[in-house]
Amino acid sequence: MLPYRYDPGALGAQEVEIAISHCGICHSDLHLISNDWGISQYPFIPGHEVIGTVAGTGSDVKTLKKGQRVGLGWQSNSCGECEWCIQGLENLCATAEGTCVHRNGGYADRVRANARFVIPIPETLESERAAPLLCGGITVYNPLRNRGVNPAMRVGVVGIGGLGHLAIQFARAFGAEVTAYSTSAGKEEEVRALGAHRFVNTRESKAMKEVAGTQDFILTTVNADQDWGAFMQTLRPTGTLCFVGVPPSPVTFHAFPLISGLRAITGSPIGSPSRIREMLDVAARHGVQATTEPFPMAKANEAIEKVKKSKVRYRAVLAN
Ligand code: NAP
Ligand code: ZN
After folding, report:
1. pLDDT value at residue 254
2. What is the radius of gyration, based on Cα positions, of the chain?
3. In this structure, which ligand is nearest to the CA of 158?
4. Which residue in 175, 181, 239, 185 sits closest to 213, CA to CA?
5. How far is the centre of ligand 2, averaged over its atoms, from the C-alpha of 102 (Å)?
6. Among 23, 25, 26, which is best to mutate for testing ligand 1, by the most ligand atoms less than 8 A from CB?
7. pLDDT of 294
8. How far is ligand 2, taken at its centre, from the CA of residue 206, in Å?
9. What number of other Cβ atoms are within 10 A of residue 274's Cβ?
């Protein structure tokens, strides 16, 4: 990445301009930098875990005030009119706009978004530790919440990075028994301190066999190909394997475990603005926050390299 200047033009009537104080580095930024999904457009400014203050509001924006601390996640706009937007499921809108997909993102001084997607941050949340909640946090909170995770359930989290370490904390807040599945034996102590009851090293096939048939809901945050059949085997009957991480190859399964145990495979995209508000409130009241490694904005390249090597514990956050 290189320094880049652009003129954003006049502020739209429904837009807000945010003066950025912090921006988390989500692995989706790395996918976009290398155009893994074929949707990147260059010059490209990554960044979609923003916290900052309102620097300007369009003429129609009545709910946000200059100087107010706000956050912005993956989504910056939606049509506001389709059946999904009307139901408050704006994250399912077919014309949803990503904050850094064909728009200028948050590794920057300023960023703009439609006011509906600019969310006030509860006072007790610290900006550096809350920025990763805006994408990583909502992405794991939403499927746990939609599935009705509760104290009777056993929840597995696969891949303990930015998303995974937040998923452990939210699953605990929902009262579940939590198992962390990781390729990094060195993370065990920290992962238990985050709230996991059990740690399974997925590189050990014996450890995986021992947990066969134990999980009600498995959330996978891994951005790499895995033996997905082995995770299917760890589900109890009626259990669900839910993808939020994006593996590079198509995911394949035998049909039998699905049929015989009434098991399901699903996926989940971020969450709506109202769910983000709820998630931030839950995080504030239940003490869920990211474990962060700060970098000055000017060292974004260094931070990206560290994320690429899976060396960050657990979220790199850029600061202006
Ligand atoms: P991250 O911080 O880099 O964490 C990914 C974790 O996956 C790593 O910490 C590692 O955990 C595990 N992992 C990495 N390489 C692996 C490999 N070769 N084999 C097995 N495990 C490996 O990434 P993130 O920011 O959490 O994002 C994860 C994924 O979620 C990305 O694909 C991202 O695009 C996607 N995402 C999706 C949504 C959505 O709406 N669905 C939103 C945000 C992000 P261990 O060391 O514990 O094994
Ligand atoms: Zn993200």
Report:
1. 93
2. 19
3. 1
4. 239
5. 15
6. 26
7. 98
8. 33
9. 13
Percent of all residues in the chain with a pLDDT value above 70, rounded to a whole number: 100
User: How many beta carbons lie within 10 A of that of residue 308, not counting itself?
Assistant: 14
245 CA → ligand 1 middle, Å:
6
Closest CA to 180 of 163, 166, 193, 197: 197
pLDDT band at 123 (very low <50, low <70, confident <90, very high): very high
Ligand 1 neighbourhood includes 54 CB (under 6 angstroms): no
127-144 average pLDDT score: 98
Any atom of ligand 1 within 6 Å of the Cβ of 135: yes
Nearest CA to ligand 1 atom 30: 245
At residue 230, the pLDDT reads 95
Q: Which two tokens stand for residue 191?
A: 């992962």
What average pLDDT does the segment 294-311 reach? 98
Sign for the CA dihedral angle at 109, 115, 121, 123 comes to positive
Q: What is the band of 6 on the pLDDT scale with cuts at 50, 70, 90? A: very high
| Residue from 163, 227, 312 to probe ligand 1 pocket by mutation (most atoms less than 8 Å from CB) | 163
Pairing status of strand 154-158 against strand 75-77: unpaired
CA distance 109 to 167: 29
For the Cβ of 31 lying below 6 angstroms from any atom of ligand 1, the answer is yes
Q: Whose CA is nearest to atom 15 of ligand 1?
A: 224
